[in-house]
Amino acid sequence: MVPALYSPIADDAKLTRQPVASADVLASEHGPALAGWEQIVAESSGPGWLRISMVVVDARGTLLSVNDAVTEHGTERVRAGGTMVDASVIESAGGSITQDGTLRGTRWSSRVIDDASATPEAPSVESTPRTLGDADLAGLRAIAATLLERGKRA
Q1: Separation of alpha carbons 115 and 118, rounded Å
Q2: Which of 25, 35, 77, 129 is spaced 20 to 30 A from 58 at the CA atom?
Q3: Rounded CA separation 41/93 (Å)
Q4: Cα–Cα distance between 136 and 142 in angstroms, integer?
């Protein structure tokens, strides 16, 4: 079953904790700005869907950002160029955490249309942004809390 955005992260989700930048970037002149920053990512999937939830923390462990995204592949049929084609649906939300703890971000509802004229560089995408509401903020905070707790063991 496809998980809903903000639903509890599955116990069997693949969890990784890693630096936000590659070793090459960290060794560059820009590296000190990102030193110690890490991303904690939970990935789960099933037939026709993928979910990725993540947080970014700085070297002190301060939460900097949170994101949750669920993709359903080929779940809609839409008209494109006079023919019916498959479309994948992506629901995502995320944002940054300010110093006072405020979460600022956007929720996106997108459809990626499998249009013959589309290319990997220029896919046919319809996206609608929305301001985060109270339920979105609560959902993202719950995702962040789960990832921060599970990330201690990763």
Answers
A1: 5
A2: 129
A3: 15
A4: 10
